[in-house]
Amino acid sequence: MSEMYDVVIIGGGPAGLAAAIYAGRAQRKTLLIEKGSYGGRINDTREIRNYPGTISDSGAGLMEKFKEHARSYATNEFKRTTVTGVEKAADGSFVIHTKRRGDFLAQCVLLDTGTKPRILGIPGEVEFAGHGVAYCATCDAEFFKGKEIYVLGAGDQAIEEADYLTNFASKVTIIVLHEEGHLDCNEVAAEIAFHNPKI
């Protein structure tokens, strides 16, 4: 069994790296475990222009700054591996099991498990992510000013984001799995969409 950490952070996305910064400032013995690349989904963002204090940067560039900041604390450690489980021990501490690095002990565990977009398998979808294919309207809407946008889906999130996108796009077309005009979203969102001349 390995030594005891004050904090083990599972996931090195923006939240995990920010937590490591705060834990480092508090001089807590901290381990951040990340299975892939530090920064998570934001690494796929080509240009960020809405993060305070950063006029423009790439997602990967901004996350490199987060990582550098988190690494600046001597009490922080970083390991690349996959966490396979977390157990609470009889004394109230936690045992974190990993695929290749063994087990780690911690007084506290923070989870930054992140998200993944639902990939539909459309030809070119993965290759053009961040270059015309987007998964976040509030993140990327300004890049599509004056253009025609297609939104795939008819649930609450898709319809609310389609409405938001009309502030930027010349036209928004919603692609549904059902017959034309049938939306899966709540009635209020559907009414707003049906009365929006740009949709």
Summed up:
The protein is α/β, with parallel strands linked by helices. The chain has helices at residues 14-25, 59-71, 137-140, 156-165, 187-194, and strands spanning 4-10, 30-34, 76-80, 83-88, 94-98, 103-111, 148-152, 171-175.
How does this model look, in words?
By secondary structure, the protein is α/β, with parallel strands linked by helices. The chain folds into two domains: 4-111, FAD/NAD(P)-binding domain, CATH 3.50.50; 137-194, FAD/NAD(P)-binding domain (3-Layer(bba) Sandwich). The chain has five helices and eight strands, in the order βαβαββββαβαβα. The chain has helices at 14-25, 59-71, 137-140, 156-165, 187-194, and strands at residues 4-10, 30-34, 76-80, 83-88, 94-98, 103-111, 148-152, 171-175. The protein has a six-stranded mixed beta sheet, with helices on one face. A two-stranded parallel ribbon has the order 7-8. Helix 1 packs parallel to helix 2 (59-71) and helix 4 packs parallel to helix 5 (187-194). 27% of the residues are buried. The mean pLDDT is 91.
